[in-house]
Write a structure and sequence with these properties.
Blueprint: E1 2-7, E2 13-14, E3 29-35, H1 39-42, H2 44-47, H3 53-60, E4 67-70, E5 74-85, E6 88-99, E7 102-107, H4 112-122, H5 132-145, H6 147-163, H7 170-202, H8 205-208, H9 211-214, H10 216-278, H11 294-315
Parallel strand pairs: 3-7
Antiparallel strand pairs: 1-2, 1-3, 4-5, 5-6, 6-7
Helix pairs in contact: 4-5, 5-10, 6-7, 6-10, 7-10, 10-11
Amino acid sequence: MINFIGITNDNHLEKNISINNAVLSDYKWFWVDFSEPTDEEVKHLSETFHFHPLAIEDCVQEFQRPKLDYYKNYTFFVTHLLREEDEVIMKDQLDFFVGESCIVTFHKVPSDEVLIVWNRFLAQESLVGWDPYYIFYEILDKIVDNYFPLIYKIEDELEKMNDSINKKSMNNLMNELFETRNMLLNLLHSVNPMRDLLYRMLNSHHLNLNRIGERKEYFSDIYDHLLKLSDMVMTNREVTADIRDSYLSLNSHQTNNVMKLLTIITSIFAPLTFIAGIYGMNFSYIPELTWKYGYFFSLILMALIGLCMLLWFRSKGWFK
């Protein structure tokens, strides 16, 4: 679907324009949104707007790394949308063609970010301050803002995971940790390139000559958000590593305690088994076998040996 709105030279907004009948030169600037376009609609990128074939190829062939390319009358931007679906972070691509007289947005899946700005723009009584670069800023700001809830949710899950570290089996905990680390890695693969994109925009001499340069402080704010997001992702990845190491250490400690208990039991019963083994041999001449109190003496001897060893282990601190 293609949505077209145009702003005339007298700052009058025209909407519900058919792209097939539109005369682009009649407008001061315009915004065209390609939402889930068909193959026939994609052809307008080349036939109507005459965009560069390489930029059109980047639109059609997902997924590209967030980037910008300079062309004669416009700049092409690739950005990433992030959304959660069935507890999995999905990554979508949103492309921009931004120039002095137009902004064209292209996305193969519905974009809430574009829809919010589109409806907000249509609801404006005055168009003062609005231009293609301001619309680009508004959408970009919404894209980055929607990254935060995903990271906040991961932080909440990590906090719950850390609180219940003693209540989960090792396999379940490790599976959850690795799933979380993969989600954070997917976030990092979008946040860092988007951060680099904003850095390049802010330090580009070419872009500083147009309206982006006039609104540099706005794009600097988005860049600061991306820096914060990048730090949050890296911090949470470190947290997952700390939880993993803590759980492994705790599990190892518990295993050592179990082995210590088994060692104590084995050590106590070893001499008792030795005594029982001696008097269980089938030799004809074992003096104690004919002794009237031999049985009671052997039981008392084994009890004393076990008690002495128990007290000795306790004095060594094995029961602490």
